[in-house]
Structure prediction request, 328 residues.
Amino acid sequence: MKRIHLNISYFVTAATFFVLGCTFALLTGHSTMDHERESVKSEVPYCVTSPTIPDQVTFAGETIGLTRYDQRERMDRELMSFTYMHSTTMLTLKRANRYFPLIEPILRREGVPDDLKYLAVIESNLNPLAKSPAGAVGLWQFMQTTAKEFGLEVNNEVDERYHIEKETVAACRYLKQAYAKYGDWLSVAASYNAGQARITSQLKIQKANQAVDLWLVEETSRYMFRLMAAKTILENPKRYGFLLKREQLYPTLTYRPDTIRGSIDTLALYAQRHQITYAQLKDANPWLRSTRLTNRLRKRYILYLPQHESMHYVPQKTKAHNKNWIIN
Prediction:
């Protein structure tokens, strides 16, 4: 019996090596017949290509040429960065389906070009809870001092830098103020990163008309081209390898507003009374920074209460805000 098992084992082993040998011969024979194809064959099971750089891009109604070596190479760097930061770019695309419908009408109402929404993309990756090491927070990454300067309330219980509608209005105020000074939206964007004092002084020192031509610290120099690259990829993600189905986008959420003019001693009990969890209340109102809302001045606040029908994914009901984002 033992001898039979050994013979079978020997036969299986021999047959396996025979098949492998034939396969190897076929593969090597084919490669011999196609020398050109073999010469570019990758040694790894995937390929990496460099994104095509357009000759020009349009941003906020302005055309920026990309044939000059310095501008082309700066754009190349940012397109490659967005293209190969796979998870971050994919996540930003999913979030855009939820947050662009909130941001775009405000920009339109405030008279700010729609392309400026990409500032929020490069500032926070459209994460409403984003916080930088320097202390800037929210979609638009306001510092506390600047936030107060542009009308946002910031204290231990309320931080409107996390209030999407209000922080977007504040960002529009900043952007319009800067545009009145520079008359150029990329210079406005540079000032959003580096501050108006820095951009104004460098334009004067370097005898330049726009920030895109300035010699600046690397972060600000990249910032303007990151902005254009974000627009380029989010307008046509399929071209850069991002293939999403409609049901994979983050759907918009619906809320019931509740106007508050007094205090709320315990937000957890308030949430319980409205049949939602404390976590769901905070997720819908991230500007609430404490477990209570004292409201000593009896200000008017609007809290958003998530509606139960929008709290669960229904794939067939998910709508794509931009048809270019999806493949189905």
About this structure: Confidence is low (pLDDT under 50) at residues 1-8, 10-34. The first strand starts at residue 56 and ends at 59.
